[in-house]
């Protein structure tokens, strides 16, 4: 008798095989290295060198909890959040060590998040006391984008209230800078070298992926389903018609490729897109949850 978990693992294995085939076609190389860390209520590892071997790394118990943000720390570990959508207090940040399999709880917080290895800083969202008292005489915390050393989550520094960031995805664009969408419906850049937040003139742009090769940001227009690349210095935009309506982006920078999803009538398809070739390959069925990271 095959359990529901086994069925899930078998289906996941099949999808990973299709993933490798698609990547081979659009990168033009017979060698794909690295692994995907992805999932919704479970975290899966897919080794792209042997994609039939799919491993379940973590399961978000109890039922109702889900995986929030995921970010790479180094070649051997990543950080993620486990979140109860009904409670801000029941949201924790954890670190997974791929070498030992150890899961370490770092502290309270939730995604989206990004780790800046050059500064050993994790950016994430957290409920922060604001000094106010509610009707019952208890503190009134507010959501903030904060930064902290992962080994000292409680030693965070406040960056900006979430009301000014719209809890936007946070994308690293240099060793010292991150970009997010926020107040004024425009992109903002935070520079840690100067502890300075500065606005850009770029509006209606939810940040998704940083394309290092051309130093452009992949964005989704808030008002439409258009996907485009934008130069943060000049503001020049380049629409990508083939990605219109895409959602959920996993970046594979070593191959200048992204993985994303598209809704088609009553089903979804997975889309593998090469920036360099402006080429995509589509197959039926979603790839996990389109939430995750690539690791070398």
Task: Provide a descriptive summary of the structure in words.
The chain is mainly beta. It has a domain at about 65-165. Helices cover about 10% and strands about 55% of the residues. A 4-stranded antiparallel beta sheet has the order 3-2-1-24, covered by helices on one side. A 4-stranded antiparallel beta sheet has the order 4-5-6-7, with no helix packed on it. Strands 8-9-10-11 form a 4-stranded antiparallel beta sheet, with no helix packed on it. A hairpin with an 8-residue loop joins β10 (about 140-150) and β11.
Concise summary:
The protein is 8% helix and 54% strand. With 296 residues, it is mostly beta strands. The strands form six sheets. A four-stranded antiparallel β-sheet has the order 3-2-1-24, covered by helices on one side.
């Amino acid at each position: 008798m095959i359990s529901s978990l086994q069925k899930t693992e078998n289906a996941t294995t099949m999808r990973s095989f299709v993933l490798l085939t698609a990547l081979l076609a659009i990168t033009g190389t017979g060698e794909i290295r690295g692994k995907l860390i992805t999932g919704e209520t479970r975290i899966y590892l897919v080794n792209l060198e042997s994609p039939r071997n799919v491993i379940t790394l973590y399961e978000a118990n109890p039922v109702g909890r889900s995986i929030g943000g995921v970010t790479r720390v180094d070649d051997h570990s990543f950080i993620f959040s486990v979140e109860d959508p009904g409670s801000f207090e029941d949201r924790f940040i954890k670190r997974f060590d791929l070498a030992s399999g150890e899961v370490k709880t770092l502290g309270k917080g939730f995604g989206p998040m990004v780790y800046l290895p050059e500064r050993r800083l994790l950016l994430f969202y957290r409920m922060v006391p604001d000094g106010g008292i509610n009707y019952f005489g208890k503190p009134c915390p507010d959501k903030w984008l904060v930064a902290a050393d992962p080994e000292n989550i409680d030693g965070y520094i406040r960056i900006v209230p979430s009301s000014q960031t719209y809890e936007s995805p946070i994308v690293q664009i240099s060793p010292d800078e991150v970009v997010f969408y926020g107040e004024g419906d425009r992109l903002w850049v935070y520079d840690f070298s100067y502890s300075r937040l500065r606005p850009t003139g770029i509006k209606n742009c939810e940040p998704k992926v940083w394309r290092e090769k051309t130093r452009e940001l992949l964005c989704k227009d808030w008002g439409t389903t258009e996907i485009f690349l934008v130069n943060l210095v000049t503001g020049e935009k380049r629409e990508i018609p083939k990605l219109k309506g895409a959602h959920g982006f996993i970046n594979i920078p070593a191959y200048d490729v992204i993985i994303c999803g598209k809704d088609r009538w009553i089903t979804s398809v997975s889309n593998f897109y090469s920036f360099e070739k402006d080429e995509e390959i589509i197959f039926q069925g979603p790839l996990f949850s389109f939430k995750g990271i690539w690791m070398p």
